[in-house]
């Protein structure tokens, strides 16, 4: 049995203070102050009757579409509203084209906030404080979620599902048999456990970035996770919204810290060449080899979809998960990096408002939760509806976080978040360019 490293207590008061400081960002805007969206005045029920039909455009189809529609079935019957959902794999382009042609859906479900901000700035989207109880919504959501939909003081979308990325997965049976702790309070404690794993003769970490033209996105997540933990959500926001330059000293520092983990001898199975040349979906597989070749993989809740069939059949017995810990000396609360679909309103009437109220409430999503592959962004959601204990554990991690922040590359301009940041991560991991050079080049190419 391996003795657990001494746990440093993160004081509850400090975490509460941090959360309280962030809550100031979530103040209810005054709808009478204008703002760039369509519909500045407060909505009054009955002023604009609906048509009985509400159209929704989103990016997900297949089994997700079926679970989404099942989650709306009872609502439609109870409110006598027909919801017509259209999936589009090229959602980002299609929504822009349809709005430009005067054919906007009543509601759109944005997988990233960037496209929503573009249309909100043009006055096409109604701010949520016009028609939703903003304070009640903020009170049930994971803190910080609405900040991800804020533009110039107004919030234009409300989340209807969440992705949680700040997770560390491990092979439960082998890990527990070795006696390794599964609740490190800080990254430094996790590093101490990783050193013990190395001492046993295997690599602590498995990691993989391969994704064809998108190779490198996993690396951007590593930088974002460390920016959030080391420097906290305020500096993180300054960075992703370019209120500070990409090549600021704080960012270069984080590249160095991530490099110590990923490039350190023996830390990652196969080293940097394996990371770059292995599809990201294969990262968890070495954990479940016989015997395990690694003990940790850092990835979002969707990673379970890539696990072997025999592991999935016994998910709760085979797979363990804990939150990526805090950074000692950094932000004292537990942050969560993730994403989510943001529901935004183009047509304001009684029916569309009723749909938005339900879509963005803790009551939405029960059938989807039971089907799997969906997480509620509401900390008050009834977690018993999830299909397995592993998903409930992930939900509990997210629901108890002090702050949520959107994946930074999804917020940055696409030329950066889906371009130079991805390629820069590859060049940096290869050793072709150092951190300062990569950050300087990304900053120089940031769209004006």
From TrEMBL:
The keyword Transport applies. This is Sugar ABC transporter substrate-binding protein. Belongs to the bacterial solute-binding protein 1 family. Transmembrane segments: none annotated. Keywords: Transport. Signal peptide: none annotated. InterPro entries: Bact_solute-bd_prot1, SBP, TAT_signal. Residues 22-48 are annotated as: Disordered.
């Amino acid at each position: 049995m391996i003795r657990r490293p001494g746990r440093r207590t993160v004081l509850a008061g400090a975490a509460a203070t941090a959360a309280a400081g962030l809550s100031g960002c979530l103040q209810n805007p005054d709808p009478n102050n204008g703002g760039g969206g369509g519909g500045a005045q407060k909505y009054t029920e009955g002023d604009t009757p609906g048509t009985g039909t509400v159209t929704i455009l989103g990016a997900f189809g297949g089994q997700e579409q079926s679970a989404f529609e099942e989650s709306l079935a009872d609502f439609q019957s109870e409110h006598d509203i027909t919801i017509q959902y259209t999936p589009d794999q090229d959602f980002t382009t299609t929504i822009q084209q349809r709005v430009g042609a005067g054919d906007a859906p009543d509601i759109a479900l944005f997988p990233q906030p960037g496209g929503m901000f573009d249309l909100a700035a043009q006055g096409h989207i109604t701010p949520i404080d016009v028609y939703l109880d903003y304070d009640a919504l903020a009170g049930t959501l994971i803190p910080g979620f609405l900040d991800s939909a804020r533009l110039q003081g107004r919030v234009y979308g409300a989340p209807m599902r969440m992705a949680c990325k700040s997770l560390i997965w491990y092979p439960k049976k082998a890990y527990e048999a070795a006696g390794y702790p599964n609740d490190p309070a800080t990254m430094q404690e996790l590093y101490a456990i990783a050193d013990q794993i190395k001492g046993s003769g295997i690599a602590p970490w498995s990691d993989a970035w391969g994704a064809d033209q998108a190779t490198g996105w996993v690396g951007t997540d590593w930088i974002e996770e460390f920016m959030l933990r080391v420097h906290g959500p305020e500096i993180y926001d300054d960075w992703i919204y370019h209120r500070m330059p990409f090549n600021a000293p704080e960012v270069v520092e984080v590249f160095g810290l991530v490099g110590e983990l990923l490039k350190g001898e023996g830390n990652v199975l196969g080293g940097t060449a394996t990371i770059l040349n292995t599809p990201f979906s294969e990262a968890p597989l070495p954990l479940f080899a016989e015997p395990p070749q690694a003990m940790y993989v850092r990835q979002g809740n969707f990673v379970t979809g890539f696990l072997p069939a025999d592991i999935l059949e016994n998910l709760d017995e085979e797979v363990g998960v804990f939150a990526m810990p805090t950074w000692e000396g950094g932000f004292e609360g537990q942050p969560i990096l993730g994403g989510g679909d943001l529901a935004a309103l183009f047509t304001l009437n009684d029916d569309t408002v009723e749909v938005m109220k339900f879509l963005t409430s803790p009551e939405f999503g029960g059938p989807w939760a039971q089907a799997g592959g969906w997480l509620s962004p509401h900390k008050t959601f009834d977690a018993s509806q999830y299909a397995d204990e592993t998903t409930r554990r992930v939900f509990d991690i997210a629901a108890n976080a002090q702050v949520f922040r959107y994946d930074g590359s999804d917020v940055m301009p696409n030329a950066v978040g889906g371009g130079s940041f991805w390629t820069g991560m590859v060049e940096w991991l290869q050793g072709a360019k150092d951190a300062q050079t990569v950050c300087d080049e990304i900053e120089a190419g940031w769209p004006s």
